[in-house]
Write a structure and sequence with these properties.
This protein is an alpha/beta fold and about 425 residues long. The protein is about 45% helix and about 20% strand. The strands form three sheets. Strands 6-7-5-8-9-10 form a six-stranded mixed β-sheet, sandwiched between helices. A four-stranded parallel β-sheet has the order 2-1-3-4, sandwiched between helices. Strands 12-13-11-14 form a four-stranded antiparallel β-sheet. Helix 3 crosses helix 5 (about 125-145).
Length: about 425
């Protein structure tokens, strides 16, 4: 059900952005424009023209006003554009009016993002979530377009064929929506069962969150050797990934890589991707990965926090991971203010990763690190191997047939061998 932004690299697109949301500085407008260009490139379209408009409020009929519509039509005609993109959401009425007045197909911001999501969804779950969001987007716009094809007259037998087709399409979409929601509910149940199984052997989960293209997947690969696809393209990570990481304390945690957020992330996407974002909701600690080389870092941070608030996750421990320090001059980094829960890293070079792992260890309050003393018979090789693998051996002495150990490790692990405990420190 995807509406493609372009057919390969030969697609020609004309971009329009308008004034709402750009009432700040010229730098803010430029950054928003640059971000929209990246979205267009991620959808595989070629930009052949741009129009920017500032206005105090959107035109209810066409968003941009009649005069600007005429200008856009002229630019699109002269550039040979096959697609006109708006960096703004369009109401069903606005979309219908613009498509009637302009010489090419019209796509708004949400539809463009949905197209990119459709391109990057690989798992069955991701594909279901994208289709759900696309259909929820399409349903009211289908109604808007159908208004032009409705009744031809006012009496019995004068009902237009377009209205009949509209109702048929609406019923098909509604049936498909119900089916998708049932399938996603099944996915959610499986995830819940998996989470319950993990809870039986407590392994904390830490989730990576952040603005799209902040470097989350690159960091995820560095910490886990997972080899997941990492790209500078927006939304290159769509399907959630979960891998084990061993912290300096020898405590094992699960690290989750999640979809990146973006300015004005459509609400339908947050709703449709609830199953994926449950990893964020259930995580014990969040790593908020930020591009510290970006001039828009504070605005991007605010956008991520807005989505986290909608997910009810702002109350969790959040570590600020300031990535891409290799792109920042040392004096700029030194001048930046960082608190005890922030760390500067470069996921590309590995700088600061040791400090990040220590910070992750310190932020975890579940399954705390404790110290114990054990006296284990030497023939209990499995016990000794488990303590060696999952804890730090502070001291080891041999006496007769016993090994005396001073151990620092997760309470859940050491608690399994309480029968060998000597004294509590």
């Amino acid at each position: 059900m995807s509406s493609k932004a372009g057919e390969g690299r030969d697609a020609r697109a004309h971009i329009l952005t308008e004034g709402k949301g750009y009432h700040g500085s010229a730098a803010d407008s430029s950054a928003a424009f640059a971000e929209f260009r990246e979205l267009v490139a991620g959808a595989g379209a070629e930009i052949v023209g741009e129009v920017l408009q500032r206005r105090p409020r959107p035109d209810p009929a066409t968003l941009v006003g009649k005069g600007k519509v005429v200008e856009i039509a002229a630019v699109a005609e002269s550039a040979g554009a096959t697609l006109i993109l708006f960096d703004h959401d369009l109401s069903p009425t606005q979309l219908r009016n613009l498509e009637q007045a302009l010489p090419a197909r019209v796509v708004d911001r949400t539809q463009l993002i949905l197209d990119i999501f459709a391109r990057h969804a690989r798992s069955r779950e991701g594909q279901l979530q994208v289709e759900l969001a696309q259909l929820e987007y399409m349903l009211p716009r289908l109604t808007g377009r159908g208004a032009a094809m409705s009744q031809l007259g006012g009496g019995i037998g004068t009902r237009g064929p377009g209205e009949t087709q509209l109702e048929t399409d609406r019923r098909k979409i509604q049936r498909r929506l119900l089916q998708l929601k049932r399938e996603l509910d099944a996915v959610r149940r499986v995830r819940t069962q998996q989470r319950h199984r993990r809870a039986s052997v407590p392994v904390p989960t830490i989730a990576l969150v952040g603005y799209t293209n902040a470097g989350k997947s690159t960091l995820f690969n560095l910490l886990t050797d997972a080899g997941v696809f990492a790209s500078s393209r927006m939304f290159s990570t769509l399907d959630p990934k979960l891998r084990a990481v061993v912290l300096p304390s020898r405590r094992r945690v699960l690290l989750s890589d999640t979809v990146g957020f973006i300015r004005n992330l459509p609400h339908t996407l947050i709703t449709s991707f609830r199953a994926t974002l449950e990893e964020v909701e259930k995580a014990e600690v969040l790593l908020h990965v930020q591009d510290c080389s970006s001039a828009q870092r504070q605005q991007q941070k605010a956008e991520v926090e807005k989505v986290l608030a909608e997910l009810g996750a702002l109350g969790k421990p959040i570590l600020s991971v300031l990535n891409k320090t290799d792109l920042v001059a040392p004096e700029e980094q030194a001048a930046s203010v960082a608190d005890q829960w922030s760390v500067y890293i470069s996921a590309r070079t590995g700088e600061g990763i040791a400090q990040l792992l220590e910070l992750m260890d310190r932020a975890l309050t579940v399954d705390p690190i404790v110290e114990e003393k054990f006296m284990v018979p030497q023939q209990e090789g499995a016990v000794l191997a488990a303590l060696d693998a999952g804890a730090l051996i502070l001291k080891r002495e041999f006496s007769g047939d016993f090994v005396h150990l001073a151990v620092s490790g997760p309470a859940s692990l050491l608690g399994r061998y309480r029968q060998y405990r000597r004294t509590r420190k």
